[in-house]
Design goal:
2 copies of one chain form a homodimer.
Chain A lengths: L1 H13 L8 H8 L13 H25 L8 H21 L1 H7 L23 H14 L5 H4 L3 H16 L8 H17 L3
Helix pairs in contact in A: 1-2, 1-3, 3-4, 3-5, 4-5, 4-6, 4-8, 8-9
The structure holds a DNA duplex.
DNA sequence: ACCCTTAGTGGACACTGTCCACATTAGCTC
DNA sequence: GAGCTAATGTGGACAGTGTCCACTAAGGGT
């Protein structure tokens, strides 16, 4: 039942973003009275938090799926570059194809903060976007593409650039630009990152 | 009165983000009955849209304020670099000091879209964040710092990097990191951008 | 057989955005 | 000045939301 409510919430988030994951509607989908949800979640925010991590997990899953499609031995410079590019592409594609889920993944309510659940501070056990990015950067160092002296902390500017592009072109001021322009901007960001590795 | 409602909305947005700009509360502040607002705004969304542009304008104003503090002739390479840095710093500082307004500036409702009001697509008459950034980049080209061949479209990756940093450290997964770490991440992004100009 | 935890129900409250009909008031025309 | 018109604000209502409270089954352990 808890899982059912979360699944319903994910569906609501997919088509309408975090605002659309409304408790009463989720219970309606499951076919139960609104208050029943309070046996499984303290708040609407607790339900929303679960939906958020589900959305974040789906993003991570899509990234790994794209990542495994890139051939080439670990440590190969060209393959390492392509893997980094795949990470960025998957991120941007997810934001574009699933705008609701993307917005939801980053709309975790203040109360139920990220803690270490999504590996924001450490790329722990589960595959997480930041963890995947770090692994790709480590491989780039190993492959001799990225200067080890520049490795420390570089995941943040790179993540920021990709995330900012997703945000600005998806829901931000650039959202009404024609599709071709949006793709161009995404490509500009990816090559900007690639250029800054040398 | 219209202005009063917008001002009240800005105050609500300042301490609570876009979600906090609730029509009834704004009318309460102005000291009028809820429905009176409908003589001046079609929707709550129309009020919110005005509040959003007000927030965006305040961001632009702070950026120009910081910008005028940078001495140095136009075309001087060092001054040009410092001006670009000031733009990024002001952006990040605004996001940190006024999280509510920052979030609101980018939460324009779908209906009342940006149009060309904030100069998203062209840095028109009024001073706008993107317009300021473009001017700074043009000066960097003029100063011989930035290769003219790399100038085209480079405002988007740069804007994205700064915006993404603001988002990730402000409301995103990194928001719970210690303050020192947040400043470090911001500095990393700014030097990342600076390095990528050469 | 009892009791106690769990899961779900029914009813209520405060709050929101929004619609409708009404009152007031300012300004204009005759 | 009298009266019409447009603008502005009021009062009351409705649906929808999150959330609290008291209540009712059902199931399992003693």
């Amino acid at each position: 039942m808890r899982a059912g409510l979360i699944a319903a919430g994910v569906e609501l988030a997919r088509s309408g973003g975090p605002e659309a994951v409304v408790l009463r509607e989720a219970t309606r989908i499951v076919g139960v009275v609104p208050n029943a949800a309070y046996r499984h979640f303290a708040d609407r925010d607790e339900l929303l938090a679960e939906v958020c991590t589900a959305a974040m997990n789906e993003l991570a899953d899509r990234m790994t799926a794209d990542l495994t499609r890139i051939r080439g031995k670990r440590g190969n410079p060209d393959a390492a570059r392509r893997r980094l590019g795949a990470i960025g592409s998957a991120y941007l594609r997810f934001a574009q194809e699933e705008p609701g889920l993307f917005a939801t993944a980053f709309a975790v309510p203040r109360r139920h903060s990220y803690a270490d659940r999504d590996g924001a501070t450490d790329g722990s056990i589960r595959s997480t976007p930041l963890g995947l990015l770090r692994a790709a950067l480590d491989e780039l160092v190993e492959a001799g593409v990225l200067d080890p002296q520049r490795r420390d902390g570089i995941e943040y500017p790179i993540w920021s650039a990709v995330h900012g592009t997703a945000e600005l072109t998806g829901q931000g001021p650039l959202r009404d630009a024609p599709d071709a322009e949006l793709r161009r901007i995404e490509a500009l960001t990816l090559t900007f990152i690639s250029n800054s590795l040398t």
